[in-house]
Amino acid sequence: MSNPILDISENKDNGVTKLIIKEGSEDGPAEGDKVFVHYVGTLLDGKQFDSSRERGTPFEFTLGKGEVIKGWDIAVKTMKKGELALITCKSDYAYGKAGSPPSIPADATLQFEIELLDFKPEDISPNKDGGILKSVLEKGEGYNTPNEGALVKIHIKGRCQDTIFQDEDLEITLDDSGMVVEGIEYALKKMKKGEKSRLTISSIYAYGKAGYPKYNIPSNSKLIYEIILNDFEKAKESWEMDLSEKLEQSSFLKDKGGKFFKDGKYKKALSCYKKINDYLQYEPDAKDEQLEKLNKLKEAANNNLAMCYLKLGDHNKCIEFCDKVLETDPKSEKAYFRKGMSHTVLTNYDDAISCFQKVLEIDPNNKAAQNQIAISKQQKKLQLQKEKQLYAKIFDKMAQMPPIESNRNAFPKSGETFEDFGDEGMMESEEENNPTTEESNEIQKEPIVT
């Protein structure tokens, strides 16, 4: 029995119809997915006007973004991977009354044999590493999306492999709740009210190596979620607040950042402290108690930013924020100590020792600084020993080179130029005068702390 011709047009006006020639075997794409198809386009009289098969290269486009004629966006969204179908599009869903000369006449109805080869969800991860993939199953309304700190109401359905581990309504504050994984919080900021989306989230944006025993989620598990954003209330932006509100919100963020830091969520803590600086960056009218509170909050934010960057291994950023603290508080033990730790890791041992000595000038009894000075001196000594060994090898090689006298004939004779003579024999290769890669790596592999 042959398959029926289906009216898949939005208004059920037979503007777009589909006849399935070969059934697909898997799920189909959603709006925002990158789709890959082969197609052959013909007029109703059978005349072919285009074919990806003849070119030998599949055609790709982003579904639902208006990159193709309207009939294609409608039709391909109804297909499954591997499906082959005959799609008929009336002119209103194709090139309209104008057509597309010279191949497509005015007001032409078109037929396409389309095969859906593959599809890939939209990558919305911050680093475009494929860690958060999003497919829009049902469009939302309007243009607004939740911001950081927004109160959102969602329905969440989570699946790990073939097991549904979560299916419930939640009300959460973005970047604050800890009730959902990082990938969901990131995705919610890109969703509209009423939108339903499917998210594929890798372990680095979910439960990571630890997994989540409560839901029986193993280590390094990829998760699939269906999220409906039922409603949300945006948090106030900085420009919508007066100074009192900014100070209150900054105090809240400082406490929240501290909690994230204690839980080892350094990136979330970083976000809180950055927001404090955003709130308090330009407040020229602050006076008296408000000014004092503002300065304390900014100094705490910069000190904590330095600590977060130290934990995350971004030592140049750590030094940058320590310097900001020291601009306003030249006697900050924490800033000097953290700056010294970063210089130690960067093998800037003289700078590290200088920082730890500054700590001892402020507090002569700081044993941690005393220990770090000893460690830095020891590592500097080891570094110098390595350098001496390296240069000794270089000098040994140089000593084995032929004496300069043996190369006298390499120089031009009277009346000759270097252009006439050529430069062969003028100097040894640069490799002989530089440490080998292996030797250089020996220095870099030297441990920082014993």
Would you give an account of this structure?
With 450 residues, this protein is of the alpha+beta class. Helices cover 38% and strands 20% of the residues. The protein has helices spanning 52-55, 70-77, 182-188, 243-262, 266-280, 288-312, 315-328, 333-345, 349-362, 367-399, 418-421, 430-433, 437-444, and strands spanning 5-7, 16-22, 34-43, 48-51, 59-62, 84-89, 110-120, 122-123, 132-138, 151-160, 163-173, 196-201, 223-233. Strands 1, 2, 3, 4, 5, 6 and 7 form a seven-stranded antiparallel sheet that branches. The chain has a six-stranded antiparallel sheet with strand order 8-9-12-13-10-11, with helices on one face. Strand 3 (34-43) and strand 4 form a beta hairpin. The chain is elongated and about 90 Å long.
What tags apply to this protein structure?
disordered C terminus, 6-stranded antiparallel β-sheet, 450 residues, 13 strands, 38% helix, 20% strand, alpha+beta, 13 helices
> Order of helices and strands, N to C?
EEEEHEHEEEEEEHEEHHHHHHHHHH
Number of helices: 13
Termini, distance in Å? Answer: 78 Å
Mean pLDDT: 86
Can you count the beta strands? 13
Quickly give the structural class. Answer: alpha+beta
| Dominant shape | elongated
Low-confidence stretches: 406-450
The main β sheet shows up as:
7 strands, antiparallel
Helix content: 25-40%
Strand content: 15-25%
